[in-house]
Amino acid sequence: MKATVKWVDGAMFVGETGSGNSVIMDGPEDHGGRNMGPRPMEMLLLGVGGCSNFDVMSMLKKSRQQFTDCKVEITAERADAVPAVFTKIHLHFVVTGKALKEAQVKRAVSLSAEKYCSASIMLGAAGVEISHDYVIVNEE
Q1: Is the pLDDT of residue 140 over 90?
Q2: Residues of the signal sequence (predicted)?
Q3: 2, 18 in Cβ contact below 8 A?
């Protein structure tokens, strides 16, 4: 896997992935940026959420759950000192669908956390306290 990050101007960078996709990252105005894109540490959180949500949705699909939406809300805390690393990350899944089985949702979230999500497992191994929970929204 490869990626390139190129400085554009001020605190703005363009990240380009090996698959040919690009994203703009930028800093706040008080740090020379123009707030034109997410911060690099926000991108890290999005990566964790995307990785874990992909796992959960894949497992729900394989278990033939009739979900219509799966959202993960991510909250994080950072150290007060430099480097301001993440110390805690919490992933709260909101799974919406018809006749969803709680056991299947619980299993999907647990397996993502313990076995499949490379991003969260890597950060956990580095000392970040990572937690997960979920809520099921059943549609009539």
Answers
A1: no
A2: none
A3: yes
Domains and CATH numbers, the chain: 1-38 (2.20.25), 40-138 (3.30.300.20)
Q: CA triplet 42, 130, 37: central angle to 5 degrees?
A: 5
**Cβ atoms within 10 Å of 138's Cβ, excluding its own:** 12
Whether residue 81 contacts residue 109, with contact meaning beta carbons closer than 8 Å, is answered with no
**C-alpha–C-alpha distance, residues 140 and 131, integer Å:** 30
Q: Give dist(CA 79, CA 83) in Å, integer.
A: 7
Q: Is the peptide bond before 83 cis (omega within 30 degrees of 0)?
A: yes
Q: What is the pTM of this model?
A: 0.92
d(CA 51, CA 66): 21
Say how far apart CA 25 and CA 89 lie, in whole Å.
21
CA triple 31-4-40, angle to 5 deg: 35
For tokens 């990572």, name the residue: 130
Show the DSSP H helices in 23-131 as ranges: 40-62, 102-111, 118-125
| Interval 75-106: pLDDT, tens | 999 999 999 999 999 999 999 999 999 999 99
Residue type, 16: E
